[in-house]
């Protein structure tokens, strides 16, 4: 029959059953980090010493309906129709390679049963770490100022740090600008209607909404005040893996760099 001898002796390989321990751990991670995709799940498994291919993780998550689903875009919270001075975009073109060089700020809303709660947040662009935040029923300058004061207290930044935000009145108001100037910040703002110029903090807010706010469906202000700080400090900063940080959490990433060095390379480049 002109068939090779190997065809006669060929036996189809039996499909091995999936490792129940691996399955259980994937399900646990998907429950704890509900917006993790298969890449982050794979990275976390590797960090735990579990050698598994990302294609297998994708297959297992797809078969069990564990792949995250996208949510619709939220409501705009930026009011740039004001008479305060605006500032040019000072963001460096390349990556930020040291802590306390660029801080990025933004505000979002969180829907509750009887209205909205607003969250102001500040990230260090180097590590994506949330270094200041504040919650309020009012979207105003005191809200953004409280987040700034928290960041100042936690970081004690050197002069010359770039503070980047949108053109909203909460960041252009006199009290906020005066506080920035008194601490030696360089003020930077994204162009009107261009969210890509503040993409990192926009990404953080999306992560907060999809991984924390939407699954919990807060009913009261107390719900928000209990859960959001926990997510920011205990989950996002300490545990959540970031692809831009080589799949490390912000706290872990920052430990590789000294925080008490007040030299700032942006002073020379931008003065």
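Sequence proposed for the structure above (271 residues):
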């Amino acid at each position: 029959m002109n068939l090779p001898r190997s065809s006669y002796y060929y036996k189809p390989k039996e499909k091995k059953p999936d490792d129940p321990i691996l399955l259980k751990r994937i399900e646990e991670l998907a429950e704890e980090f509900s917006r993790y995709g298969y890449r982050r799940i794979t990275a976390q498994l590797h960090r735990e010493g579990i050698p598994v291919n990302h294609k297998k993780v994708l297959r297992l998550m797809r078969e069990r309906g564990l792949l995250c689903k996208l949510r619709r875009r939220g409501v705009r919270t930026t009011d740039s129709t004001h008479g305060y001075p605006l500032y040019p975009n000072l963001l460096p073109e390349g990556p930020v390679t040291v802590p306390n060089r660029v801080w990025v700020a933004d505000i979002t809303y969180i829907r509750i049963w009887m209205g909205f709660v607003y969250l102001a947040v500040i990230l260090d662009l180097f590590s994506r770490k949330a270094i200041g935040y504040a919650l309020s029923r009012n979207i105003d300058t005191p809200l953004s100022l409280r987040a700034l004061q928290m960041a100042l207290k936690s970081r004690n930044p050197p002069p010359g740090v770039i503070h980047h935000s949108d053109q909203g009145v909460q960041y252009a108001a006199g009290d906020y600008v005066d506080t920035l100037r008194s601490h030696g910040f360089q003020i930077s703002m994204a162009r009107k209607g261009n969210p890509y110029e503040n993409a990192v903090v926009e990404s953080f807010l999306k992560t907060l909404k999809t991984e924390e706010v939407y699954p919990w469906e807060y009913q009261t202000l107390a719900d928000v005040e209990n859960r959001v700080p926990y997510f920011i400090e205990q989950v996002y900063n300490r545990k959540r893996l970031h692809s831009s940080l080589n799949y490390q959490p912000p706290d872990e990433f920052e430990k590789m760099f000294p925080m008490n060095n007040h030299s700032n390379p942006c002073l020379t480049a931008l003065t």
